[in-house]
Amino acid sequence: MGIHVEWANRERTLLIYSFGGSWDWNDYQAASEQARGMTGSAAQQVDVILDFRHTNALPQGMMRQFSSSFRSLAYQPHNVDRMVIVGATGLLVIISNVLRNIYPQVTAKVLEAPTLEKAYTLLGLTGQNTTASSG
């Protein structure tokens, strides 16, 4: 399946990256470019969810690549607000915690949630119409 990027609501204030099955860093870079274009064209603030619940394994080079990704958070389009990592386990949690310590100012708006429902709650979107699958 790779990585799928879509708007999760009609208002285009929530973007979801859905990681599924196997994916590699080329897939991630392509998804990131697509998401930058989508968020950059939105007139309002946009929150982002990275949904890792359905991925089989993480590609090699995770620390290096995620370190680069966390650093690049400082260069997101001006309207990107909060980011929620959903379904992080094992190595991803460890790497996320290390990067929070290395880049505390950049990662201040990066949150974690075990489910999409909890992510929506963290973002204050409970009860709103979202189109992304919560399965």
How would you sum up this structure in a few lines?
The protein is of the alpha/beta class and 135 residues long. It has four helices and five strands, in the order E-E-H-E-H-E-H-E-H. It has one domain: STAS domain (Transcription Regulator spoIIAA, 2-Layer Sandwich), CATH 3.30.750.
Provide an overview of this structure.
Helix 2 (62-72) crosses helix 3. Strands 1-2-3-4-5 form a 5-stranded mixed sheet. The protein is built from 4 helices and 5 strands. Helix 1 (25-40) links the parallel strand 2 and strand 3. The protein has one domain (2-122): Transcription Regulator spoIIAA. The protein is an alpha/beta fold. Helices cover 35% and strands 26% of the residues. The longest helix has 16 residues, at 25-40. The chain has helices at residues 25-40, 62-72, 90-102, 116-122; strands at residues 2-7, 14-21, 46-55, 80-86, 110-113.
The top level CATH class name? Alpha Beta
Could you give the order of the helices and strands?
A: EEHEHEHEH
CATH superfamily (homologous) name: STAS domain
Number of domains: 1
Query: End-to-end distance, in Å?
Result: 15 Å
Work out the helix count. 4
CATH architecture: 2-Layer Sandwich
Instruction: Please tally the β strands and state the result.
Output: 5
> Strand count, sense and closure of the main sheet?
5 strands, mixed
Strand order in the sheet with the most strands: 1-2-3-4-5
